[in-house]
Amino acid sequence: MCGIVGYVGTQAATEILLAGLEKLEYRGYDSAGIAAIWEGEVDCVRAKGKLYNLRSKLESVQTPSQIGIGHTRWATHGKPEEHNAHPHMDTAMRVAVVQNGIIENYRDLRDELKAQGVVFRSETDTEVIPHLIAQFIKEEIALGNGDSELVFFDAIRKAVNHLEGAFAIAVISADYPDELVVVRQQAPLVIGFGQGEFFCASDTPAIISHTRAVLPLDNGEMARLTPLGVEIYDFTGRRLKKQPRMLNLNPTMVEKQGFKHFMLKEIYEQPGVVRASLDAYFNPDWKADDTQGTPINLGINPELYGDLEQIQIVACGTSWHASLVGKYLLEQLVGIPTQVQYASEFRYAPAPMTSNTLLIGVTQSGETADTLAALAMEKERRQGKEAKYQARLLGITNRPESSLGHLVPNIINTLAGIEIGVAATKTFTAQLMAFYALALDLAYLKKTIAPIELEKIIAGLRQIPKDIEETLESQEKLTEHLAHDFADTQDFIFLGRGINFPIALEGALKLKEISYIHAEGYPAGEMKHGPIALLDAKVPVVAIAMPGNVYEKVISNAQEAKARDSRLIGVTPVKDGEAGEVFNDLIPVMEVSELLSPLLTVVPMQLLAYHIAARRGLDVDQPRNLAKSVTVE
Ligand code: F6R
User: Fold this and answer.
1) pLDDT in the model for residue 121
2) Which domains does the chain have, with CATH numbers?
3) Residue 424 Cα, ligand 1 centroid: separation in angstroms?
């Protein structure tokens, strides 16, 4: 939540900061601001609302300053008003700070500062930081350290040692006009290395068009960026030796490339995501009669699998839905009891585990506070226990360089490429692919499915990219057309069963978050136990009916909804028979095995939500109240 950027170098900072904030707007977009140093003063401009408000405000007042910081906000403490927008400054307006995260002890700090006469201008937790820094600068000077090269840095370090919570901070001061100081404590912060210029940002898309040489800071680290270079320290002031690494990212990945919205582009990228996952996880030469090679290679420690008896998965939102598909696969293909927990619940009521329990954290961003906290808590619980128990922590993430990557010993890297649209689409598909690979790998090693059966499933997976392409081609116009009818609808129900129940949940979530239409996903058989009371002619029902184990059951449940006058939309490859009669509208998908069908059935869910939201004229990529990575509890 919230995005921060910083620049020090030889170019005009403001445009670099604004362009960086544009790439971070997915992290928050209710207000924004920039501070730069010019002619001995901090020049701070802030605006409520989207970034274009800040851009137009800056048109008349841009300076050629070569150092600055910027922020795009997702409000936690204090309403999204200009006076709460970052940067925040000290009383003398010499120090400017941007922060992403939460300062948990800000009330105590604010009370202490107020008692000393400091007047606060905002309701934010962040404002305590510039006031504290200003006090420590004075203290350093009073101690006779005023001439030290590190006076500004040390004052910030001392202030940071008074802060509790999870935060990333960037600071500049008019009195130290060549220094940008950044801090990381449980909120992401990456430093970019250019030629005589240096960048910092909450996420790499903000700096990728300038440099691919990056260094993500670890928790408890700070850096001093000047035009001469970057120095890294820990919070005690000990200098650390760290080298940047080259990012394998292409700047065009963070552009819309002709699509109207990032979300639509990312929906269309899904065949490529499946192909990339197949290439990375599956051995192209393996056949059922192969006794030497292995079908799947996830590059994770084989100790993870050993005498596994139970799997617990923690995740939030869309990642939680992908985990439910994972549970189905792990239980039905491998026979391992698997539970999926909301990370936000788990962290306060952890399930009992044994040394034979594998804990998996699923988070595309690798930065979701609840998921990280749940995993950190479990890691702590396992400290000092058997080595194999400690090793049994696995992360599934699209950002292996994230906090999650630092937290757990094993990672499955999902291969979606950066996702910018706030509503997760291609990262969900990438997570599904990771779960297919994990479940099939385990099933192969534990011999719970025959090699010939495994070969068949893998062959089916190899067809999926083409199937998604055909599904996209046939559905784009159809869902756009259907969306016309639902632009004013107020409630939607999504039904699925078995492996497609999580897809019904995902369909409802997509619709809620981008179109603001109330939607519920249910296991189709559960409708008659209460929710059916909601149905009437005004409540359309989307039912996923893939031939297989539960097809007939879903059709009967759909009949029950039809008898209550609901308009029924079927996501199914079956055009005739009972399906042809019961559904008012059909969204055809290719016929694939039920086991693989979530990779296809999710596509119409995404397209329908997208077109309804676009039809309503809403900001699809930046829906209200949401942020892409939820780094607060
Ligand atoms: C939904 C969505 C959110 C995220 C959730 C978890 O479209 O994007 O529900 O899935 O905030 O995020 P990650 O996967 O980054 O932990």
Assistant:
1) 96
2) 3-254 (3.60.20.10), 256-449 (3.40.50.10490), 469-633 (3.40.50.10490)
3) 6
